[in-house]
Amino acid sequence: MPMPALPVGAVSCRLRCKMEGEAKRVCGASPPRRPSPLYRQSMNVKPTRIWKRWALVVGLLVGLGILVANRPWWAWYPHRQADARLAAHRLGDASWWIEIAERVGGKNSETTLYRAKLARKAGDTGQAAEYLHQAEMQGLAADRVVREQILIGAQSGDVLDAPRLLPILLQGSPRDAPDVCEAFAIGFYTSHTAMETAIQVLNAWVVDYPDDPRPHVLLAQLSLEVLDMDNAMLELRRALDVDPGHGPAAMELGKLKFKQQ
Predict the structure, then answer these.
(1) For residue 132, is pLDDT > 90?
(2) Which residue of 153, 174, 199, 218 has the fewest CB atoms within a 10 Å radius of its CB?
(3) Mind giving me the DSSP string for 44-94?
(4) Phi and psi at residue 28, in whole multiples of 5°?
(5) What angle do CA 131, 136, 139 make, to 5 degrees?
(6) pTM to 2 decimal places
(7) Cα–Cα distance between 217 and 202 in angstroms, integer?
(8) Handedness of CA 209, 210, 211, 216 (dihedral sign)
(9) What is the mean pLDDT of residues 221-233?
């Protein structure tokens, strides 16, 4: 009796399975998947590259930890904004930025110094002195403490040593010169003993910093002291020409116009 015919390819399939030593037929099974390009690339990464990646991650974590630990660094931007508001005599905005600096950077000598400057600008020299003492206890540099002490004393009317101190302070940073001129001019004005010197300081301030409206406002106050309302209004208009958004100048000019009605 003849043997039944085997399907085409059955013999070769059995032979191949036997040669490979497999107990299970693989013929007709789906071919194995090829690894993805990303997998092959990851398998080919050299150990040195892996260590470099881990070193980068560790470096980033260490840097983040330093930033978290060094909170005063975070207050750099609020300090800069507060400085600009103090220069423009926008004390309400400056106070807001100082509060932001305390929230993000904590209470430190730099932020407390800004508190002292804010109090001095507002005319509260006693509170300014208290804040300055706190800043000194928090580690503020001695030269900065002395400088602010001189400005607080000058604005309070202690201008007897002004001829010696004023040139020294003006030799510092040009950015600080308007602040120095303002403190001494207010001191001369407050003491009522050196009005001419106050006018000279303010006129020099106008020449050196023509884009600053503050000397015009102070010149207007000096003019009102001698009842020269016309010159006071002229100086206030000059301040608004320099800075149309300067609040103190606009407010004082409005008061004078109301009085003239």
Answers:
(1) yes
(2) 174
(3) T--HHHHHHHHHHHHHHHHHHHHHHH-GGGGGHHHHHHHHHHHHTT-HHHH
(4) 85, -10
(5) 130
(6) 0.63
(7) 10
(8) positive
(9) 85
